[in-house]
Specification:
Elements: H1 7-18, E1 33-36, E2 39-42, H2 44-58, E3 61-70, E4 73-81, E5 89-93
Antiparallel strand pairs: 1-2, 3-4, 4-5
């Protein structure tokens, strides 16, 4: 785990690894929008449902490998390991 992750991102990693979807309350705004696997999840409730479903389906964990701030954006590179083709995979989140 990277020591300099902002608190919401560190909580996101914890939520992903523990499956505690309640932690997402501290990571996403009520009106947040997430796009993943060609689907859009709008609002905190929809995001929490989606995260619970993906955790059950993929049984994944994440490890933050790199964090930087660029042009006012937080960019995190994570390694995802789980029950999906190509595991493990490194993905960049902004």
């Amino acid at each position: 785990m990277i020591d300099n992750l902002p608190k919401p991102i560190a909580l996101y990693v914890e939520a992903e690894n523990t499956g505690d979807v309640k932690l997402f309350d501290q990571c996403f705004a009520e009106d947040a929008v997430v796009r993943d696997e060609n689907e859009t999840h709008e609002g905190l409730g929809a995001i929490k449902e989606w995260k619970a479903e993906t955790k059950k389906k993929y049984q994944h964990t994440i490890e933050s490998l790199k964090f930087l701030e660029k042009n006012g954006k937080n960019i995190v590179t994570n390694r995802l390991t789980g029950n999906f083709p190509g595991s493990p995979i490194e993905l960049e989140f902004a």
